[in-house]
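thought: user wants a sequence for this fold. calling inverse folding tool.
action: design(structure=
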């Protein structure tokens, strides 16, 4: 007998409940197999009815009569799963909501960006609130609320010194190799790579065309692999174009397709000038670490040697992805960037708070952070003065320590253990 999949409570469920209490439409968007349907099923219990457009008969019903299709749960909530498979359903949802604007009319899930779907569609502006759902965070896997940014805004030196972890280089590598997809958590390592290969093939074949039209699956795969091979690196479209033998404009459209199916994340460049932020090079990364390793053709054992140079980008991408997940439920609103000035000072991740205060985060695979690892953080601290909350080197140390005033080293595990 096959064991039932383990359900990991999602930190975003509370926010989803709030949205349903106040908005006509809740839209849950994220990559395939991150748990959108499972979360939707829990939200719909006792509320109404669920249908999925993954089923051929439901697509036929939508094609036959859109109005009847979206009216299956009068005065209750209707969950429509995988809406991107019939974008015109959004027009019928809009019309229904315009007739009845009560909260909680619809829950929609999508594995592609609903704002960029091809064909007749609608943005549902003013009618829907979005809830991004990503692979499981390390906190969700451990059933504890993870919110590093909020912790850093209030942490004292003693709080930093009190941080300890049992995580080791080998256990961090195991976390990278397992990733955050629920189905991979209990899957044997020998099957994980096969699952990831099948997963990518299906997303590229089924979901990418809904936002990008007739994409060449082989070319999309090539560009995804090039991003993974330079995980968390600055985006240089000309270089990717040369390697993939395509034009920069083609690179742009294929990167957008990867982003629209939630496999690619971006960190914009941070500067005080908002205009400059929009034109400076972002960093890009594959949003799940196991998927990044698979696309990059890197096996976990290749990351084990202490001299391995491959692990750096994958660890940085892992940290960026964990922080992106925490944005959804953090008690502190924040934005994520990276930083590099003209003198060459760099900070891997810049966290900007609504009051323009900043936290700098460097990510290192070393277990012995050095003074040079704080160089970019020092430069940012000197530039910002009182706006600088803290600078942190996240690395493979077993405990936290203070390097200088406002500058600290913490275990990478502080992401979910603080």
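)
observation: tool returned 418 residues.
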């Amino acid at each position: 007998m096959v064991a039932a999949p383990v359900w990991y409570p999602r930190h975003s469920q509370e926010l989803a409940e709030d949205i349903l209490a106040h908005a006509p439409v809740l839209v849950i968007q994220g990559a395939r197999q991150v748990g959108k349907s499972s979360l939707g099923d829990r939200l719909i219990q006792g509320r109404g009815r669920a249908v999925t457009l993954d089923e051929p008969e439901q697509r036929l019903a939508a094609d036959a009569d859109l109005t009847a299709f979206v009216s299956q749960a009068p005065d209750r909530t209707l969950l429509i799963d995988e809406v991107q498979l019939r974008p015109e359903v959004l027009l019928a949802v809009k019309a229904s909501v315009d007739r009845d604007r009560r909260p909680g009319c619809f829950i929609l899930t999508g594995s592609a960006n609903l704002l960029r779907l091809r064909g007749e569609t609608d943005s549902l502006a003013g009618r829907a609130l979005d809830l991004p759902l990503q692979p499981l965070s390390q906190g969700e896997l451990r059933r504890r609320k993870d919110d590093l940014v909020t912790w850093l805004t209030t942490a004292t030196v003693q709080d930093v010194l009190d941080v300890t972890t049992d995580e080791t280089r080998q256990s961090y590598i195991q976390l990278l190799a397992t990733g955050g997809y629920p189905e991979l958590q209990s899957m044997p390592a020998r099957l994980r790579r096969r699952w990831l290969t099948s997963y990518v093939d299906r997303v590229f074949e089924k979901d990418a065309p809904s936002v990008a039209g007739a994409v060449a699956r082989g070319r999309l795969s090539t560009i995804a692999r090039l991003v993974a091979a330079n995980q968390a690196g600055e985006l240089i479209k000309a270089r990717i174009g040369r390697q993939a033998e395509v034009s920069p404009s083609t690179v742009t459209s294929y990167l957008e397709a990867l982003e629209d199916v939630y496999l690619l994340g971006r960190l914009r460049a941070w500067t005080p000038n908002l205009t400059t932020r929009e034109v400076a090079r972002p960093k890009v990364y594959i949003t799940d670490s196991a998927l990044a390793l698979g696309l990059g053709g890197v096996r976990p054992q290749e990351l084990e040697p202490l001299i391995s140079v491959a692990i750096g980008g994958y660890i940085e991408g892992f940290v960026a992805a964990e922080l992106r997940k925490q944005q959804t439920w953090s008690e502190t609103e924040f934005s994520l960037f990276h930083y590099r000035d003209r003198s060459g000072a760099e900070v891997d991740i810049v966290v900007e708070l609504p009051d323009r205060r900043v936290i700098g985060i460097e990510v290192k695979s070393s277990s012995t952070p050095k003074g040079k690892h704080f160089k970019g953080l020092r430069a940012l601290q000197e530039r910002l003065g009182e706006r600088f909350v803290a600078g942190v080197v996240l690395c493979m140390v077993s405990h936290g320590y203070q390097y200088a005033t406002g500058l600290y080293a913490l275990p990478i595990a502080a992401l979910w253990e603080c």
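thought: summarizing for user.
answer: Here is the designed sequence. The mean pLDDT is 91.
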